[in-house]
Write a structure and sequence with these properties.
The structure holds two protein chains of two kinds. Chain A is an alpha+beta fold. Chain A folds into three domains: about 200 residues, 3-Layer(aba) Sandwich (Rossmann fold); about 40 residues, no CATH class; about 120 residues, Coagulation Factor XIII, Chain A, domain 1 (Distorted Sandwich). In chain A, about 25% of the residues lie in helices and about 35% in strands. Chain A contains nine helices and 18 strands. In chain A, the strands form four sheets. A six-stranded mixed beta sheet of chain A has the order 5-6-7-3-8-9, sandwiched between helices. In chain A, strands 13, 14, 15, 17 and 18 form a five-stranded antiparallel beta sheet that branches. In chain A, α4 crosses α6 and α5 crosses α6. Chain B has eleven helices and one strand; from the N terminus they run βααααααααααα. The N and C termini of chain B lie far apart (about 40 Å). Chain B is an all-alpha fold. The longest helix of chain B has 30 residues. In chain B, α4 runs antiparallel to α8, α6 packs antiparallel against α7 and α7 packs antiparallel against α10. The chains are: A alpha+beta, B mainly alpha. Chains A and B meet through β1, α3, β4 and α4 of A and β1, α2 and α5 of B. β4 of chain A pairs antiparallel with β1 of chain B.
């Protein structure tokens, strides 16, 4: 019964590199001369440009390559990818700001695009005038704005300053007013860029909440670009991963997100050294190998807060010494989370291995690194292998409509129990 | 159930599409932009919109002082304030409209980069702003005109006065068309912006703003009449003051000229539209 409201077929977008100056003018004249006057065929034709690096298009760049997707009515499509992958270009084409070089998008329904908040705001005009100006620019009619005016002003929280020119506003007030207008758009298709990246945590929370309301609204289709994976995970019904201008994966949001995380992160899960000379160590000991093995469930491909992590290492001892071997875990910003170590013990010359498990439901989401420490006679630091492994723990929440960052370095799963004392 | 709007985005541009429908659909936005320009240009001024009157009056006084009294350019039999004022307000309308419209992409780059609406709305809003300004200035002119009429100065209004709205319509068409052409060209190569102010200055000197066509030597007259503004200004002057060039045949020429410029402007603008944001 779901009806397709956006169909994108073979979208290609080419940009020219470099500046526009007299050289580009010469090129254009030349091209015009060749094609129009000499009638040498259409050298501008796109098909020649693709993959042919040596012709006149060598100074161009394909920002999007063969993008195809469909969005059904009521779906929320999330677009993810690294900076510069082409997400914004795709949104610009969808919102008709720029045209594709090739291909077409067909759709039905009134489209409103929100590539930034406060588009067209005029510094000199009052808040009230700007509500109307911005609303009209975003495609609302005067009647629609008037109907929602009270709600908009209330939502913005700047009632007192509504007749003051917006150039006197603090940047927070400015953004709140702008977002208030945008939040009251009621299109059939809404296109949203990283609007949520602006403002403080409180504001972002409100934006995401509003996004949530909009996407739940009956029949409203949303296309949404964000770097907030948690938001994509919980708001979207479908996701697209764009890599270097092409779609590298699409479908179920959690799968697309994990393939994004897999391709974008390069963490060291294992370190081993081929020859004894390369291996770190000193005259007493030498580390041969260290490794993290996440204990992943079948359908899981990334480490999240539920995943137990097994750390194992092996080392050689060159003399008969008394050692404690410790594992230090740090956050990427350098705060130590824990320092665990083995009981002091006598090690004869030989090769040993150590193991340690960080249980699941222990670490909060974030990036971490591990260091290894060898202590002689429980007091003298013999060798310290700093930052030898790093990994990232992704967030995972079920049935939780809050998308902000969870506080704390650890996130243990012990329960908080609430019981009734007395009902009033 | 309401039938949803169907749309398609592709690489093609519709060159010959006339934008009436889009202007109508976005009429709220159009009037909003006009209002914005008015409000914004008189923020933090003491005299506010009075400047609309004051500006042509001051220019008229200057022209009377310089061109009539010092240099001694004859203005025919007509009272010189009326002669200059009419020329100045028509010329200002024309030149301000072209200049404003030619800045469309530069002034609205940040908006065009984020939101789509029919781009033509912006040039049309600029034209409307200037048209309203012209209307207000015309009231000033009419007051002065009646003053001289009652004083029985050399003022001889005649039925050609009915053609003044037609002349203004044609001037609007030329301004919009030429403005669109320059807007399309300047978006990519800014040189043309510099060229435009220069061209407008030259054009003012070869249009009968500060002198009547009557003093132009006979052998140059045809050259002057190629410029459609010459005729449109002279025509308006003839209608109100009873002296000026008034060959109806040239009105036909002006009409054809206007249609040609307007069509070129719209085609260029439509063709640029959609691709232009990549080069601004």
């Amino acid at each position: 019964m779901s009806q397709t409201v956006i169909t994108a077929e073979n979208i290609w977008k080419q940009y020219r590199l470099g500046t526009i100056n007299s050289n580009t003018f010469k090129e254009e004249l030349n091209r015009w001369w060749q094609t129009t006057v000499l009638r040498k065929g259409d050298i501008q034709s796109v098909s020649q440009g693709i993959g042919d690096e040596d012709n006149i298009h060598s100074k161009t760049f394909w920002a999007l390559q063969n993008i195809n997707f469909e969005v059904n009515k009521g779906e929320v499509l999330g677009i993810i990818g690294k900076n510069g992958a082409g997400k914004s270009t795709l949104l610009k084409i969808l919102s008709r700001v720029t045209k594709p070089t090739k291909g077409s998008i067909r759709g039905q329904g009134r489209v409103a695009s929100l590539l930034e908040v406060g588009t067209g705001f005029h510094e000199e005009l009052s808040g009230m005038e700007n509500i109307f100006l911005n609303g009209n620019i975003l495609g609302m009619t005067n009647r629609e704005i008037r109907e929602k005016l009270d709600q908009i002003i209330e939502f913005s929280g700047v009632e007192k300053f509504i007749d003051t020119p917006v150039k006197r506003y603090s940047s927070g007030m400015y953004v709140r007013l702008a977002f208030a207008v945008a939040a009251h758009l009621e299109p059939e298709i809404l296109i949203v860029d990283e609007v949520l990246a602006v403002g403080d945590a409180e504001f972002q929370k409100r934006c995401l909440g509003k996004m949530n309301d909009i996407s739940k609204r009956d029949g409203c289709t949303v296309v949404f670009v964000s770097h907030n994976m948690q938001a994509i995970q919980s708001l979207c019904t479908k996701a697209i991963l764009i890599k270097e201008g092409a779609i590298s994966s699409q479908g179920n949001p959690s799968q697309v997100i994990s393939s994004y995380i897999r391709q974008s992160r390069s963490y060291n899960f294992v370190k081993s050294w081929d020859t004894e000379n390369e291996a770190p160590g000193n005259e007493y000991i030498r580390v041969d190998k260290i490794e993290i093995k996440p204990e992943l469930e079948n359908d899981q491909s990334i480490i999240d807060i539920r995943t137990p992590l097994h750390i194992s290492f092996s080392f050689s001892s060159f003399s008969d010494i008394n050692l404690c071997v410790g594992v230090h875990l740090f956050t990427i910003s350098g705060d130590c989370i824990f320092d665990v170590c083995s009981l002091p013990q006598q090690y004869a010359v030989g090769v040993y291995k150590g193991e340690c498990t960080i249980p699941g439901h222990f670490l909060n989401d974030g990036a971490y690194y591990i260091s290894l420490i060898f202590v002689k006679d429980t007091s003298i630091q013999l060798f310290y292998l700093e930052e030898c492994l790093s990994f990232e723990v992704e967030d995972f929440r079920e049935n939780f409509a809050w998308f902000g960052k969870w506080m704390g370095h650890v996130r243990p799963a012990f329960p908080v129990n609430i019981s009734t004392i007395k009902l009033l | 159930m309401e039938v949803a709007v169907q749309w398609e985005i592709n690489a093609k541009s519709k060159w010959l599409r006339l934008p009436f429908r889009e202007i109508f659909l976005h009429k709220d936005l159009l009037f909003r932009l006009v209002r914005k320009d008015f409000l914004a240009s008189y923020q933090q001024t003491i005299l506010g919109p009075i400047w609309i009157f004051l500006q042509p009056l001051l220019i008229t006084l200057t022209y009377i002082a310089v061109f009539k009294s010092i240099i001694g350019i004859p203005t025919g039999n007509s009272p010189s304030p009326l002669f200059y004022l009419l020329g100045i307000i028509i010329w200002n309308y024309f030149s301000d409209s072209i200049l404003n419209i030619s800045y469309t992409y530069t002034a609205y780059a940040s908006v065009f980069n984020k939101v789509y609406f029919a781009r033509i709305i912006v040039p049309v809003s600029y034209l409307l702003v200037n048209l309203i300004r012209l209307g207000i200035q015309f009231i000033l002119f009419l007051l002065l005109f009646f003053f001289f009429l009652i004083r029985d100065a050399n003022v001889a209004p005649n039925w050609y006065i009915l053609l003044v709205p037609v002349c203004l319509l044609l001037i609007s068409g030329i301004s919009l068309g030429a403005g669109l052409i320059f807007a399309s060209l300047t978006a990519k190569y800014r040189d043309i912006q510099n060229l435009l102010s220069f061209l407008l200055r030259i054009l003012m000197f070869i249009s009968p703003v500060i002198y009547p066509l009557a003093i132009v030597p006979e052998k140059f007259k045809t050259l002057f009449l190629i410029n459609p503004l010459t005729l449109l200004i002279e025509f308006s002057r003839y209608g109100f003051l009873g002296s000026g060039y008034h060959d109806l045949l040239y009105l036909v020429y002006s009409t054809v000229f206007t249609i040609a410029v307007l069509a070129t402007g719209i085609v260029l603008f439509n063709r640029r539209d959609g691709r232009i944001m990549d080069v601004i």
